[in-house]
Amino acid sequence: METVMINGGDEVYRNGVAGGVEDVYGEDGATEDQLVTPWTVSVASGYTLLRDPHHNKGLAFNEKERDAHYLRGLLPPSIVTQELQEKKLMHNFRQYQVPLQRYMAMMDLQERNERLFYKLLIDNVEELLPVVYTPTVGEACQKYGSIFRRPQGLYISLKEKGKVLEVLKNWPERSIQVIVVTDGERILGLGDLGCQGMGIPVGKLSLYTALGGVRPSACLPVTIDVGTNNEKLLNDEFYIGLKQKRATGQEYNELMEEFISAVKQNYGEKVLVQFEDFANHNAFELLAKYSQTHLVFNDDIQGTASVVLAGLLAALKLVGGTLADHKFLFLGAGEAGTGIAELIALEISRQTKAPVEETRKQIWLVDSKGLIVSSRKESLQHFKKPWAHEHEPVKELVDAVKEIKPTVLIGTSGVGKTFTKEVVEAMASFNEKPLILSLSNPTSHSECTAEEAYTWSEGRAIFASGSPFDPVMYDGKVFVPGQANNAYIFPGFGLGLIISGAIRVRDDMLLAASEALAAQVTQENYDKGLIYPPFSNIRKISAHIAAKVAAKVYELGEYLSDVFG
Ligand SMILES: NC(=O)C1=CN([C@@H]2O[C@H](COP(=O)(O)OP(=O)(O)OC[C@H]3O[C@@H](n4cnc5c(N)ncnc54)[C@H](OP(=O)(O)O)[C@@H]3O)[C@@H](O)[C@H]2O)C=CC1
Ligand SMILES: CC(=O)C(=O)O
Ligand SMILES: [Mg+2]
Fold first, then answer.
1. What is the ipTM of this complex?
2. Which reaction(s) does its UniProt entry say it catalyses (predicted)?
3. Is 195 in the pocket of ligand 1 (CB under 6 A)?
4. Which one of 275, 331, 367, 395 would you pick to mutate in the ligand 1 pocket, going by the greatest count of ligand atoms within 8 A of its CB?
5. Which residues contact 543 (CB under 8 A, 6 or more apart)?
6. Which pLDDT belongs to residue 40?
7. Choice among 204, 270, 384, 552 that is catalytic
C-alpha cells in the first residue's frame, strides 16, 4: 500500500487517485467525492492492488498501468483483454456441472475481480442469473456456513445492539445509495435460515449493479442476526450466526429501530432501504412503521406486486378484456399474495373509478386453512382481513378453483407441487387461455413446473414462474415460459428512486413501474406467449422503468433536491 501525502482533498479528485487505479471504464466513482482522512490517502498498488477486487484487472492491466502501479514481475508478461478473460472464465464456468460450484466460482470472481464479475453477469445474464440468484442462491444460503470463505456485506447481530452506528462506520464505503437488508427468517420458500440469509442481500445487490447500473460501491448488503429458530442450523457446527432462538418483541424492534435510525444518520435521507425476505409477521409492520418517515421498500410485498401487475397488464393482449373483467385466485395469502392482490385492486380502482373496497371483491385468496372467507375474519391476521369475502368455507384449492372460477391463478404459497393436475385441468376447463403464475422460489417450491402447466392445460396455459424453467416441447410445439420475478422491477425501480433523490415510496410509483415494464413486451414476445420481455434486454428495461419512476417521484414531489439533500 502506498501512502500519498496531498495538500488538500481537491488534489485527490484532480489526480483521480481516490479509486487507486484510473477508472478507465467509468463504472464506479462512488467513492470519489467522499472525504478521506485529511491530507493523506492510501492508494492500492503493486501486490495489494492485485488483491483488491474493486480495482484488480488481473492480466488486463496494460503496460502503462503495470509501470504506474508497480505491477512489473507480479504478473506474467501476457496482456489479456477483458473480452478474452470473459471467454476463458465462461469456458471454465461451464465445466462445472453442480450449480453450487457455479455459484462459488462466481462468488470467487466477485471477490477477485469485481469488474470482470459484472462484465460476465451483464453479458451472460440469462445463463448466470439462475446462479447468483434464484434458484441456486437458495441452496447457497442453506449451505452458507460450509461454503463461507470471505465475509460479504455487514452483519448486525444482537451483540452489536447499542453500537449499530459504529458498525456502519466499519464499512469501507461512505456513499451508500441502496441497502438490501434481511433478518433471514423467510429466505425464498426455504424458511428460517438465520444469518445465512446473507446470500440474498448480496445476490439482490449484485443485480442492482448488473441489471440496474447502480455502482457496486454504493450498495450495502446487511443481515440482521437476532438468532434463528431453525434447529438444524442451531445444531450445525458450521453455522455462522448467533446460536440462540430468535429475539422477538421489544428486543427485535429496538434493534431494527436502531438500525433504521443509524442508516439515516450515516447516509442521509435519500438512502434506499429494501427489506427482503423477512417473515410476514415483521415485514408488514416494518413497512407500515417506516414508510412514512424513511425511503423504504419491501421487495416481497411491493416489488412482487409491481412485477405481477406488469405481467397481467401485458397478458391482457393475449387473453383479452380489461383487468376489471378478470377474476383472481391466489394460493398463499402472505407478503407476496396480499401485496399483489392489493396492487391489482388499486389498479382496477384507478381504471374503473370504483372504490378499492369494491374492486377487492374480484380477488380471492387461499391460505393454509383454505379459502379466506368472512366467517374466518376474527381469527385472520390483519393483512388478510380485507380479503375475507362472503362465501361458504372451502378447504381445498381445487374446490376453490371450481367454485370461484378464476381466470388467473397465482401461487404464492412457498409450497411446491400444489397446482396439481386436477387444479390445472379445472382452470383449463373454463378458460380458453388460463393464466397460471407459479411464483414460489426456488424451483423445487414452484407450485407447478412449466411442463405440467402446458401439458395439463393441453398447451393453452399462459405460464410464468418465479424461478426459470427451460422451454417445453408439447404436441410438436415449443412453449417458452416467462419468469415472473421481482428482479424485473427492483433494480430499475431503485435506480429511479436514487436518480430522482426520492425520499418516500408511493403506490403510484409501483404502478408507474408496472406500466413501464408491461410496455416493454414486444409483439415478438407475445407471439411466443410471453408476458415478460426476455432478461437479455434487462438493462434497457431497467433504465426505462427508472425513468418512469423518477418522473412519478417528481410529479408527486417526493424528493429532496441536492441543494437540500
Ligand atoms: N417470484 C417472485 O418474485 C417472488 C416470489 N416469492 C415467493 O413466494 C413464496 C411466498 O412468499 P411470502 O408471501 O413472502 O411468504 P409468506 O410466508 O408471507 O406467505 C405464505 C402464504 O402461503 C400460505 N401457505 C403455506 N402453505 C400453504 C399450503 N400448503 N396451502 C395453502 N397455502 C399455504 C401461508 O398460509 P398461512 O398464512 O395460513 O400460514 C401464507 O399465507 C416464497 O416461496 C417466495 O420465494 C416471494 C416474493 C417474490
Ligand atoms: C424473489 C424473491 O424476492 C423471493 O422469492 O423472495
Ligand atoms: Mg424476496
1. 0.99
2. (S)-malate + NADP(+) = pyruvate + CO2 + NADPH; oxaloacetate + H(+) = pyruvate + CO2
3. no
4. 367
5. 213, 492, 495
6. 59
7. 204
Q: Which residues pair with 389 in a beta bridge?
A: 373
Q: Which of 335, 444, 485 to mutate to test the pocket of ligand 2 (most atoms within 8 A of CB)?
A: 485
Q: Which CATH architecture has domain 135-298?
A: 3-Layer(aba) Sandwich (3.40)
Residue spans of beta strands (DSSP E) within 282-411: 296-298, 328-331, 363-367, 370-371, 408-411
Annotated binding site for (S)-malate: 186, 441, 485
Known active-site residue 133: yes
Q: What are phi and psi of 477, to 5 degrees?
A: -120, 145
C-alpha cell at 205: 445487490
CA distance 499 to 559: 10
C-alpha cell at 56: 484488480
Q: What is the pLDDT of residue 445?
A: 98
Environment class of 456 (CB within 10 Å of its CB; exposed 0-12, middle 13-18, buried 19+): buried
What's the first-to-final CA gap in the chain, in angstroms?
Answer: 34
Low-confidence ranges of the chain (pLDDT < 70): 1-42, 563-565
pTM of the model: 0.93
- Residue ID of nearest Cα to ligand 2 atom 3: 300
* Fold matches, 46-121 and 302-493+503-530: no
The structural architecture, per CATH, of the domain 302-493+503-530 is 3-Layer(aba) Sandwich (3.40)
530: its cell numbers: 410471453
Domain ranges in the chain? 46-121, 135-298, 302-493+503-530
DSSP string, 186-230: S-TTS---GGGGGHHHHHHHHHHHHTT---GGGEEEEEEE-----
> Is 501 in a helix, a strand, or coil?
coil
Over residues 191-209, the pLDDT tens digits come to 999 999 999 999 999 999 9
CATH classification code of 46-121: 1.20.1370.30
Residue 385 designated active-site? no
Q: Among 474, 479, 511, which residue's Cα sits nearest to residue 496?
A: 511
Cα of 173 to ligand 3 centre, how many Å?
25
* Cβ atoms 224, 256 nearer than 8 A: yes
Virtual CA dihedral for 491, 494, 499, 500, nearest 10 degrees?
140
pLDDT at 39: 54
